[in-house]
Amino acid sequence: MMIGGSSSRKGSDSARLSLVNASSKISQTGLLSGEGNLGFQNSSSPSASFLGVPARDGSEIFAQTSLPLILEGETGTGKEFLARMIHENSPRKKGPFIVLDATHFSSEIADALLFGHRKGTFTGATGDQKGRLELSDKGTLFIDELQNMSLEIQMKLLRFLDRKTLQPLGSSTEISIDARILVATNEPLSSLLSNGRLRPDFFYRIRGKTIRIPSLRDQLGEIPSLIEWKWRKWQEENKSQPPILSKEGIRVLQSYSWPGNIRELFSFLDCLLATFLPQEKVPMDWIREELKSLQIDLSGSQCPDKWEDLAIERELIVGSLRSSGGEIAKASELMGMSRTTLWRKMKKLGIRPFEGV
């Protein structure tokens, strides 16, 4: 048995992210089949529990409200993922889910992005532009990297939360907006408050509930559930069965600390899916070697980019084969490489000549 054993495609991925099952654990879902591989017959939908967020933290309860929430956790723990789950399980699920990353924005840019602007407000403003808040009307605005938001923008956002109205830059008219605010930070809220990077009045206004997401190293038992979700998603997108990951392989993945958390695990799984054919058994040696190389790369304080690069390379090769009708000679010309090199890369990435044609 393997992940991807079911062909059901009922609804979108996000629609099945049910928070009702937030306390369900992998031992209750029957994911480990009698053949010792991972399958998902009779399993529950993925839930907040596989992010290490227990039901007692109120994820499912607060999904039903419009209160602002703070999601706190290390980089890569799945804060945006949880924010999407909360939105998809809320009364606002038919409305938009808008993301604003506050990492690289100056106060002026953040102001325009949040509240929008009118034509001629500043150089380059050639037309009216709605801000993220207005785009989030009847939906949810998720603001990531709260720790990088200026105190000035915090004050303006506080005013919006109090009044539920905003005034675009260059406009004299206030607009009523019904948007729920979710914010996330990878730094402890206590330190942001103590060093003056978070306004106390803003904090008090947005802390309807603080949900802390543990690191993956503290939730290694949830790795099978995360893999299951990833396999379901891949199966639906590719209309094919994913590679077979054995029970032993899963145990090896659970023995690694995953310093990059869920983001790192998903990158690893993307590489695996790009490397092996549908229903092909993933060798234990490959898993061990990949984890070993990752640990070596991390010793130099630099996360490897090869997994993402492999996925991109696979996509380029498949696209070239599609454009050439499966002819290797034409595809190699499009790729700018010899036929021998193309064949070698195809074998390495598990690509067949007529894949995608």
Automatic annotation (TrEMBL):
Q: What is this protein called?
A: Putative sigma-54 specific transcriptional regulator, Fis family
Keyword Nucleotide-binding belongs to the record: yes
Query: Any idea which UniProt keywords this protein has?
Result: ATP-binding, Nucleotide-binding, Transcription, Transcription regulation
Q: Which organism is it from?
A: Leptospirillum ferrooxidans (strain C2-3)
Give a yes or no for keyword Transcription regulation in this entry.
yes
Q: Which Gene3D superfamilies match?
A: 1.10.8.60, Homeodomain-like, P-loop containing nucleotide triphosphate hydrolases
- Coiled coil start-end: none
Locate the transmembrane regions by residue number. Answer: none
Return the SUPFAM superfamilies for the record: Homeodomain-like, P-loop containing nucleoside triphosphate hydrolases
